[in-house]
Amino acid sequence: MNEENEQITHRKAKLAELREKGNPFPNDFRPDARAGELTRRYGARDAAVLDAEPVRVRLAGRVMSKRVMGKAGFAHIQDGTARLQLYVQRDSLPEGQYNQTFKKLDIGDIIGVEGALFKTRTGELTVRTDIIRLLTKALRPLPEKFHGLTDQETRYRQRYLDLIVNETTRRTFRMRAEIIRFVRDFLTHKGFLEVETPMMQTIPGGALARPFVTHHNALNMDLYLRVAPELFLKRLVVGGIDRVFEINRNFRNEGISAQHNPEFTMLEFYQAYADYRDLMDLTEQMLREMSQAVLGSTSISYQGERYDLAEPFPRIGIAQAVLNHYPDLAAPDLEDVDCLQTLAASMQIPVKPGASAARIVVDIFEKAVETRLRRPTFVTGYPVEVSPLSRRNDQQAAIADRFELFVAGREIANGFSELNDPEDQAQRFRAQAAEKAAGDDEAMHYDADYIQALEHGLPPTAGEGIGIDRLVMLFTDRASIRDVLLFPSMRPE
Predict the structure, then answer these.
(1) The pTM is what?
(2) Where does residue 171 rank: exposed (0-12), middle (13-18), buried (19+ CB within 10 A)?
(3) Are 403 and 220 in contact (CB under 8 A)?
(4) Is residue 319 part of a domain?
(5) For residue 477, what are the domain limits?
(6) Which of 173, 221, 254, 468 has the fewest CB atoms below 10 angstroms from its CB?
(7) Domain of 137: which CATH number?
(8) Where residue 146 falls among pLDDT bands split at 50, 70, 90?
(9) How would you label 209-223 residue by residue, b for 16+ Cβ within 10 Å and e otherwise?
(10) What is the pLDDT of residues 327-357, one digit of tens each?
(11) Which of 125, 141, 157 is the endpoint of a domain?
């Protein structure tokens, strides 16, 4: 029998003993304080003041350490906010509690305590405990006790253990919550209305992506998990909600990587009587203020590099971005299919048969250039053929009024002036449907209901999607998307 199994057996024996004495899982203890709040309020208070003005507290949490020294002992308990030390004396507890409760506690047990705050000689805020109760018996030991959980596979599969033992993980998900809260407050303050749109759709739309398929038994029909809420949100703009947003879960049946998870969170927002340039300005302002709000500074550090969001974000066309990184190319080369195919082949970039020069430029940019865009940069000038929902540029009909924002070499946001010409949109849907019929799993369906909505009139509008997961990665300095998802997609063991 290995050590872990021995511990489990020993703990189960303790639980059996507790069952003989009554309910070992009581639910009648109500804490009146939390460790983080107590530390903030009293951590800096002088020891003499605490002694003269006792502060009595009721606290509950998980036992993270225990040290018994004869008739007294110390322990640390951890709740959802922080850790706090306990000082336990046999003579200060009710009869039998020291030997029968405190000394028999295991690391990981959940307890409730009562007592008064004081400072130890080393200045640590501590509860002088006079009541202690076992609330939940932990039957399994915590991993690697005092050294934290470092195995990545276990951290992702058993996130609860990761949260118990790793403060960095707890801080990451607190930061995630703060970022989402900031987004809501920022957009609501600017007059946007938060809404919810369907997750199951009869036609998947709003993005070039392969969807998941499910089946509705009562209706006897297949449905798709949404790849984006875009077409529903724009229907709402048609209906008169001219500033609208949704923080939504999307599902795309694609590969898993450090940047991709099949289930992920996006912010999408739409503003009538605005164009893509207005949204670039808005995005720059939002990220700058977000950094100040959640980090206390506009300067952020990510994977050893530092970025100052107070500096204006450069704006560059996609063609110019390729030319900047391949000085041997000239502007005419970006219209030469043969030249571009040769370049793509030399970099082992796959090119679809019959691809246009504009499409190959995008392929080269996505595979070889975007990872080099380190400081926050808006890239514009995307061709219409890879932007099926974007408005055409008034001066260059083959170019969309669209941008993507890159930070630290990865896409953070995608926005554009919306296509509100129903006949142009219908033509592009037909082109997408032809690509799907030819075998492109990521091409869009023809959405007749959406065309009908456009025929009622979509005002001039701009819309944008921002990847919340990648944004959290940036602000928490995490290299993998799995580190910012509580339960990332994993192959079953």
Answers:
(1) 0.92
(2) exposed
(3) no
(4) no
(5) 165-314+375-484
(6) 221
(7) 2.40.50.140
(8) very low
(9) bebbeeeeeeeeeeb
(10) 889 999 999 999 999 999 999 999 988 889 9
(11) 141
